Amino acid sequence: MNKVVHFRPACNLLSTNEMACLWESKIGRTLPRVTLTKEDLLAMAAEDIIPASIVATIDECFDDYVRALDLEEEATENKKSNPPMVEILAVHPMCA
Fold this sequence. Notes:
52% of the residues lie in helices and 8% in strands.
């Protein structure tokens, strides 16, 4: 019986703010917070300098991710024509 089990812990997810607060408590100081408006982000994206522009960098990463999804879809289509040799068993964890 060949089975593959994938675990995805649903309870161990933290927001960016929670991670920053944990890091601040570990290093013993408060990090500066900067709030960006929509106009600030659009102005940064207009510069389009990689890696100096974080928005352009994120956009480039997103483009790479979309290309990877296209490859994954192609692999999924190929997998449909060739049945898998191992069954996949998805187990959804439950939080206490």
